[in-house]
Amino acid sequence: MKVSISVGGYAKDGIEETVQFVQECERLGVDCVWAAEAWGADSITALAYLAAKTEKIKLGSGILQISARAPAMTAMTALSLNVMSGGRYICGLGVSGPQVVEGLHGVDYSEPLTRLRENVEILRMAFRGDKLVIDGKRHQLPRPGGEGKALRLDHLPADIPIFLATLAPRSLEYTGAAADGWLGTSFSPDHAEAHLSHIRKGAEAAGRSLADIELVTACSLGIGENVEEQIEKRKRSVAFNLGAMGSASTNFYNDAFRRAGYIDDSLAVQELWLSGKRPDAIARVPDEMVTAFSAIGTSEMVRQRIQVYRNVGINGLQLRFDTNDMRERLDMIGQLMDMLAE
């Protein structure tokens, strides 16, 4: 099983500490660093900087928001970073959500899966070295009726993996059919089929299998004897995802928890959060909604939990932490790497 980390928020954390953290993770054998992109730092600037500061660790955009860029620019960015990093770049894409897409970027959010499909199609053309030609519902290249002509990018062809961050059933099916890898969130190995059944369906319809897709999911890691304290610390993040990561009508994280069977809990937490009762929302998160979606507890508990992820076919864990202390995070990563080497 591969281990990866996620970085972001450089204005708060400081880029030098971030670089030191990534370099130490590289030394420990961490496979990939994913640079987050929401409504603060962009992904690519950080990855370009880290490419110059590291040697082996893979560099993934986690994720590029497709509505923030024209597809051809996404392709040019991916190919450029791939060259700069010596072939270490992984292109992670996602549709984000209507609050960010329409509120921050001013772009229509409708037909997100169609836009994702067309972006992937254009990127594949660019990575093969083909001219960019598409007559899609949301993208037309060259633009009809204008003076433009079909162009190929001034790059050599490159084998750049495309990972998709998807949560909704139809998007998960498309991931199974078309992606090199999946970046999962709100995933519990105890309820794996809530996600994997859809990925499998898409893969099989395309003549593939689940084994053809690298399955990487976010996993909160906490190792220590103070198990109850760790669970309580994680509840705020769970409540935030359920209540704040989307509107009352569109929250893919909340939907994913509900598909896993936590219908009443998810809706209750969301209602409290959106009503401004955030302490109540956090308190409303049951312990199981933390432990079922993470690897938290004593060393033996975490060791057993990692095996559960392995048993359902997860190839990689993208670690999340409830501590900002770099030494604490590195110590836990070191312990996890030792467990995986056993």
What report would you give on this structure?
With 342 residues, the chain is of the alpha/beta class. The protein has one domain: Luciferase-like domain (TIM Barrel, Alpha-Beta Barrel). The protein is built from 15 helices and twelve strands. Strands 1-2-3-5-8-9-10-12 form an eight-stranded parallel beta barrel, surrounded by six helices. A two-stranded antiparallel ribbon has the order 6-7. Helix 2 packs parallel to helix 15 (326-341) and helix 11 (263-274) runs antiparallel to helix 12 (278-284). The termini are close together.
Topology:
Layout: E1 2-7, H1 10-13, H2 15-28, E2 32-35, H3 43-53, E3 58-61, E4 64-65, H4 71-84, E5 89-94, H5 98-103, H6 112-128, E6 134-135, E7 140-141, E8 162-164, H7 169-178, E9 181-184, H8 193-205, E10 214-223, H9 227-243, H10 252-259, H11 263-274, H12 278-284, H13 288-291, E11 294-297, H14 299-311, E12 316-320, H15 326-341
Parallel strand pairs: 1-2, 1-12, 2-3, 3-5, 4-5, 5-8, 8-9, 9-10, 10-11, 10-12
Antiparallel strand pairs: 6-7
Helix pairs in contact: 2-15, 4-6, 7-8, 9-11, 9-12, 10-11, 11-12, 14-15
Would you tell me which CATH topology applies? Answer: TIM Barrel
Query: How many separate structural domains?
Result: 1
Instruction: Give the helix/strand class.
Output: alpha/beta
What fraction strand? 15-25%
Biggest sheet strand line-up = 1-2-3-5-8-9-10-12
What's the average pLDDT?
Answer: 95
Cα-atom Rg, whole angstroms? 20 Å
Secondary structure: number of strands: 12
Summed up, the helix count is 15
What is the structure about, briefly put?
This protein has helices spanning 10-13, 15-28, 43-53, 71-84, 98-103, 112-128, 169-178, 193-205, 227-243, 252-259, 263-274, 278-284, 288-291, 299-311, 326-341, and strands at 2-7, 32-35, 58-61, 64-65, 89-94, 134-135, 140-141, 162-164, 181-184, 214-223, 294-297, 316-320. The protein is α/β, with parallel strands linked by helices.
